[in-house]
Amino acid sequence: MEKTTKIMNTSGLHARPASIFVKMATGFTSAINIEFNGKNVNAKSIMNLLSLGLKKDDEIKIIANGEDEVEAVEALVGLIHSKFSE
Amino acid sequence: MLFGKGASEGIALGKVLIIKNDPLGIEKKRIEETEKEKNKFLEAVKISKDQLGKVRDKASKELGMDKAAIFEAHLMILEDPELMDGTINKIEAEKLNADYAFKQITDQFIEIFEAMENAYMRERAADIKDVSDRVLRNIRGEKIVDLSILEEDVILITNDLTPSDTATMDKEKVLGFLTNIGGNTSHTAIMARSLEIPAIVGLKDITERINSSDFIAFNGKTGEVVINPSHEEIEKYQSLKIAYEKERKALGHVKGKVSKTIDGREVELVGNIGTPKDLLGLKKNDAEGVGLYRTEFIYMNKETFPTEEEQFDAYKEVLESLNPKPVVIRTLDIGGDKKLPYLKIDEEMNPFLGYRAIRLCLNEKKIFETQLRALLRASVHGNLKIMFPMISSLEELLEVKQVLNEVKADLDKEGIAYADKIEVGMMIEVPSAAIISDILAKHVNFFSIGTNDLIQYTCAVDRMNEKIHHLYNPFHPGVLRLIKMVIDNGHKENIWVGMCGEMAGDPSMIPILLGMGLDEFSMSPSAILPARNLIRACKYEDMKKTAEAVLSMDTAEQIEDYMKNLEK
């Protein structure tokens, strides 16, 4: 299961939203990765996620593999759409 | 006596505690019992998490949730699968010692973050290093100096303070900080101001110059440190300390109050800032806005010019956070004593009289246009006022306004929004501009007098030259007459006149400026409450007379004496 989405919150994926994202991703058993700009990283790793330096309007692909992959992708995309309640 | 950069006001006297985090000196070793090594690593991580959990709890109780968030992030780093699994893999597959394996992994990340474009992200490298050092010391069973349990009152002497140091320390027992490195906007400086603990940073080698048995007195405002002071010196510092504390206590009362004299003359007390990080200080000191946002810092400590986007972010953050309070942003003032590593300026005989500020911007229009675009775009997020530095003639001012209009026209074509009414003003820091301020006032919405340069140009005194420093005097009648003239010329054209040099926050100068009719005083945020307190105790009608009296005097000395007597 995979889905492409855009970062919507104005300040991008800095520490606070990134940690919320990682916490949610860690809650799923599926392996979850993020693809951006030719890089593919583990979405459960805060450092990997931050190292992508995601800004507003950057397009990312969320890829999940495992039992709860559908829920995982839906939930994470939803989180991004919620702009992390910024 | 030693001198550093005064980072947080206040006086401290006391014994020292020197924290020398000696370099770890990690060696690569081959380990046969990898299972045992792995457990050693996991145990160290567990201890680190316990420590950080305590730090976080303490921080959230004493500093608030947002300050505690940084330790939440540190804890998350320790739960990072890439870091944990990566280290364990290295221990198992390469038979490496735990500390070496862990350091290799964290160094990789530190390198990635240090290379990032965004300054905020680059600073995260320090967080990873902070966590990494803690785990490494725990792996090696080293004692981590726990600042939360101090036996006596101390002045901390260290290379630099980490976020966890400042969060855990027993604030009751820490009298002050002195650090080797750091500037006014470094973490230590910001935390010290937010905790209201006196501090001096950038003392270079203070950790080497001081012995653990030394006694120290220092002044966090002036940056002076006295090692093993004499009886007289101790007395002097003690009375300074008492006076300072009395003054601070009185100041809490003026928070949230208007800056108005007894007889109703209201002025604006605003802050000088360099980066969005200074917002904290502005809020804490109840600033009524920003009178000088020095944009140079966005250009410094970088490899290339900041992009339009980066600048937009830095302006927007401040505008949005202070909206609807006014924010005066000054366009790039580089050259003189401020250089950029990526912009080559030929050696000059007199850099302060040379290729700098607006002169440079008008010659390298691309740099200027990028900044103006970012400013205009950010204008929709708050109350922006744009200010141009170093204008010396009307031609220059008109040319600058022309460029601004061109950039606006470009944005119009692209359908990009900017605020309708953006006030445009200029610094008055060149004597020729002050003298023709009657003409210039017809073309701007405000003046802001930059006294640091105005004094040095008016008196022909290089303010960096210690031999002639005594000639650099804000009380010089020539300087005061120019200031009065600028204020009057501004008022004749119905524009407001502010001041953003050191003088604007100087308590012995404020009554004169108030009496001259200055509308806006911009100063370092910590000077705002004392200034408000002073203004609220003044009578405008009396200060007008004071200003008149002062303007009729012959020498700086007479004026200074007169003002000193007035204070009493």
Overall description:
The complex is a heterodimer of chains A (86) and B (568). Chain A has three helices and four strands. With 86 residues, chain A is α+β, with helices and mostly antiparallel strands. Chain A has one domain (2-85): HPr-like (Histidine-containing Protein, Chain: A), CATH 3.30.1340.10. In chain A, strands 1-4-2-3 form a four-stranded antiparallel β-sheet, with helices on one face. Chain A is globular. Chain B is an alpha/beta fold and 568 residues long. Chain B folds into three domains: 2-20 and 146-234, Phosphohistidine domain (Glucose Oxidase, domain 1), CATH 3.50.30.10; 34-139, Enzyme I, Chain A, domain 2 (Orthogonal Bundle); 251-567, Alpha-Beta Barrel (TIM Barrel), CATH 3.20.20.60. Chain B has an eight-stranded mixed β-sheet with strand order 1-8-7-3-4-5-6-2. Chain B has an eight-stranded parallel beta barrel with strand order 9-10-11-12-13-14-15-16. In chain B, helix 14 packs across helix 15 and helix 20 (510-516) packs across helix 22. Chain B starts with a strand and ends with a helix. At the A-B interface, helix 1 and helix 2 of A face helix 2, helix 3, helix 4 and helix 5 of B. Chain A: InterPro entries: HPr, HPr-like, HPr-like_sf, PTS_HPr_His_P_site, PTS_HPr_Ser_P_site.
List keywords for this structure.
heterodimer, A: alpha+beta, Histidine-containing Protein, Chain: A, four-stranded antiparallel β-sheet, B: 568 residues, alpha/beta, Glucose Oxidase, domain 1, Enzyme I, Chain A, domain 2, TIM Barrel, 3 domains, eight-stranded parallel β-barrel, 16 strands, globular, pyruvate (chain B)
List the helices and strands and how they pair.
The complex is a heterodimer of chains A (86) and B (568).
Chain A: E1 2-6, H1 15-26, E2 31-36, E3 39-42, H2 46-51, E4 59-65, H3 69-81
Chain B: E1 2-3, E2 5-8, E3 11-19, H1 34-62, H2 65-78, H3 81-94, H4 98-114, H5 119-139, E4 154-158, H6 163-168, E5 174-179, H7 187-195, E6 199-201, H8 206-209, E7 215-219, E8 224-227, H9 231-251, E9 268-273, H10 279-284, E10 290-294, H11 296-299, H12 308-322, E11 326-330, H13 357-363, H14 365-378, E12 383-388, H15 394-414, E13 423-428, H16 431-435, H17 437-440, E14 446-449, H18 451-458, H19 477-492, E15 496-499, H20 510-516, E16 520-523, H21 528-537, H22 540-551, H23 556-567
Helix pairs in contact in B: 1-2, 1-5, 2-5, 3-4, 4-5, 12-14, 13-14, 14-15, 20-22
